Amino acid sequence: xxGIAEATRIxxxxxxxxxxxxxxxxxxxxxxxxxxxxxxxxxxxxxxxxKKSWNNAxxxxxxxxxxxxxxxxxxxxSCGKSVTSFSIMRLHNxxxxxxxxxxxxxxxxxxxxxxKQLRELRGGxxxxxxxxxxxxxxxxxxxxxxxxxxxxAHQTSLGKEEVEASCIEALEDAGSDDPKAWMERYPYQLSxxxxxxxxxxxxxxxxxxxxxxxxxxxxxxxxIQMQLLKVLRGLRDKRGxxxxxxxxxxxxxxxxxDRVEVMYLGQIVESAPVDExxxxxxxxxxxxxxxxxxxxxxxxxxxxxxIPGSVPQLSEVAGSGCRxxxxxxxxxxxxxxxxxxxxxxxxxxxARCIRLAEIGEFRKVAS
Amino acid sequence: MTNQENPILxxxxxxxxxxxxxxTRKGASVFxxxxxxxxxxxxxxxYALVGESGSGKSTTGRIIxxxxxxxxxxxxxxxxxxxxxSPSLLRERIRGNIQMVFQDPFSALNPRKAVGNxxxxxxxxxxxxxxxxxxxxxxxxxIERVGLSSKQIDRFPHQFSGGQLQRVNIARALVVRxxxxxxxESVSALDVSVQAQVxxxxxxxxxxxxxxYLFITHDLSVVRFIADRIGVLRKGELVEEGTxxxxxxxxxxxxxxxxxxxxxxxxxxxxxxxxx
Lengths: 367, 276
What we know:
The structure holds two protein chains of two kinds. Chain A is α/β, with parallel strands linked by helices. Chain A has two domains: 36-125 and 208-351, P-loop containing nucleotide triphosphate hydrolases (Rossmann fold); 140-207, no CATH class. Chain A contains 13 helices and twelve strands. In chain A, a hairpin with a 2-residue loop joins strand 4 and strand 5 (108-109). Chain A is globular. Chain B is α/β, with parallel strands linked by helices. Chain B has a domain at 105-177. The two termini of chain B are 39 Å apart. The chains are: A alpha/beta, B alpha/beta. The interface between A and B is large, with 48 and 40 residues.
């Protein structure tokens, strides 16, 4: 992370607060050329709608995750965050889903894997944490049974004691204070925060290289959220695994992530290292999102700044122009005419907006 | 806020126990949801109740809205103790004055009723307005006041987005001209950009209709924006109370400090996760 952040800083606006790399395990500081753990290229996911029509839920999504990197995907609801993350493990019903583009995980092409290979990948090298822990656990099985089941599905050669030991280790890593007692309980006997730790434990148990966490703390209290974020970050530091964190909370992104992809209506509209994104947000949507969050320090504003309107249905956004045009305060005629591509701003910082230069000036005048 | 008038609402040491009966006598247990909670809501003020889940925030709101009776203690609205009012007396004197907006805008409305009719129904129950057309006019007025178009009045809940529907719920609550609005996690389910719109709307409406808000939420950044006073609940007890400046600037209990310290700051330069 340090290397990455260092390489892309521009204008010296960010202090050297991460310069020592004390939060990183050794040997990962110098990784400018490190190969990506996951590469998503031009992903298009379309679902079958009424009358056999196909609707693109996600279009032209392009990102990569390096080893040991925490990538944040942010955006409001129905922006395609979850569709994207489900696609990485091909979790959509394939009878009514079409994928285009490519997803490469650790050298293998996800779309050419057989069902058996996919099963090995899911819960093996890729762990997944869903938003609601209660509905991702089986209410009729004890926590222990569910952990053991996950181990047996992937590591058939282990003996009974070894399985037990790895269950306990996984729960401990997920922040459980008494793993043995937890394993004998049923899901209803544990609180929401404890259950989410169990789910994290299950995702970790086969030592995944990539963990996908889809709104892992949204349903939890802030105090529990903070503990779990610490657990997740600690796991990245300890095991060096990559994490994709999907969230709508800008605070969580700021605290957790190395890089951020901002999504709006199925497209990535801005992509940047976290420091850069918060210091110099360029896309009007990112700027709007950051400004709409009520501030926690400084003056209390009389009014919050808002993004006008609400996220439209994809079908309502006609034509090929910018999808944010209907809500954008900087919209011009040219925005609605042609397909807007990602514009490069700095190394590893891009935004899908053709009026970046004008917007920058506009903001200067306004402030 | 410097408001020296008599408080519009007083909550006097309420207790609420929930008794769960087990299969055997041994299995029965008592859960103390609220213990000795007292606070006052001044006129035109916003009072925020914060705390973790299970701390009794919503129970307090439901008791004030007279959806539930406290085990002991009393609630006084404009000098009248309405704790033991009969349902008809409540409807006559309290329901029109204290209204509630819930967290999930979809489940708060009847899916088979056009939103205009849902608003008119509230007026019918409160016997406001003389004729249906009269009430419909009031509904249209209110729907436009919350930022929706009068054309949308014949639509059904599924034709709205979450933010629009929460506006409908606010309109339905305000159309009977209450003095107190209880907002139980009313903006928590909304997206950030829409949440900001609804919060601004609430600020405007407060001025326009001289409302007092009881704002129940776990989101402290929202509280800081909208509240005048804050009460912090923990396991059914009010552990701390004060103005926004006092609570955020100088929290007195560890619990409040922990709560405040747990909000992820939207600033990557300030590290909160390094300690553990």
